[in-house]
Amino acid sequence: MIRPALAAALLLAAAAAFPQSAEEIVRRLEANQRFRTQEAEGSLVITDRFGSRTKTFLSYAEGQERMLLAFTNVEEKGQKILRLRDEIYLYFPEAEEVVRLQGAALKESVMGSDFSYEDLTGEKSLLDLYEVKLSGRELLAGREQFLLELKARARGVAYPAQKLWVDVEEYLPRRAEYYALSGRLLKTLEVLEVRRVGGRSVMSRAIMRDAMKKSSSTEFRVQRVKLDEPLPKNIFSLEALSW
User: What pLDDT score does 65 carry?
Assistant: First the structure.
């Protein structure tokens, strides 16, 4: 027979091993995805009713507020997307022009993919934007997940509601569903592969599907990634977009 004192100790140990709130799960999830700097080389494989095409890129990020995406494939070589906090700028080398995106333009597709420019602006914590609820646990591809339901705290958020599956062991997102205020499914994101880099787990392959587009998907692939290493000086500036 287990004595009451031992039973209480076992319950406390179990409570320490697993977060007891949705908020704590989100904090651990975001902490695992927070890097001082990140440099990556990858591609977007865009598939729709016209076939498949690949866009290659180099990306750089510093913290959660600054990101640069530079396309390297022949058709879009030299085009860049710069995010500074909640502002996004596009650079077009042919016109030597910088355009700041605002309003409805943020919802437009990036290179015809299933990702919008708005998808790139999520530097704020989920807890700042959403009320979160732990709905339970589910198995996904043989791994146990926390299932979180998120409801926007105010209007103006890209996705008024989300469902998020978070790996119980690694505290990484494995699936996300994005909903309109009406409850209609807008997009799904599925993480297919995770890579260990410098002792940390990083998403290396994922697929986004826009439910508003028929037979459409975009696979995000990362071939190379470096974490917490120095980046070129002043890389996140409007003046540097033309380099």
Answer: 85
Q: Give the pLDDT score at 13.
A: 45
DSSP 97-166: EEEEE-GGGGGSBSTTSS-BGGGG---S-HHHHEEEEEEEEEEETTEEEEEEEEEESSTT-S-SEEEEEE
Q: Tell me 9's DSSP state.
A: H
Q: Is residue 89 part of a domain?
A: no
Give the total number of structural domains in the chain. Answer: 1
What's the whole-model pTM score? Answer: 0.85
Q: Is the pLDDT of residue 159 over 90?
A: yes
C-alpha atoms less than 13 angstroms from C-alpha of 187 in its C-beta half-sphere: 22
Structure tokens at 182: 């009406």
pLDDT digits (tens, 9 = 90+) for 40-77: 999 999 999 989 999 999 999 998 889 999 999 999 99
99 belongs to a structural domain: no
3-state percent breakdown (helix, strand, coil) of the chain, nearest 5: 15, 50, 35
pLDDT, averaged across the chain: 88
Are the beta carbons of 124 and 138 closer than 8 angstroms? no
Question: 173 is in which domain, residue-wise?
Answer: 21-35+43-53+109-232+234-238
Q: Residue 52 CB: number of other CB atoms within 10 A?
A: 10
Report CA-CA distances (Å) from 160 to 45, 53, 103, 125, 146: 27, 31, 16, 15, 20
**Residue 169 falls inside a structural domain:** yes
Q: What single letter denotes the amino acid at residue 51?
A: G
Q: How far apart are the first and last CA of the chain?
A: 72
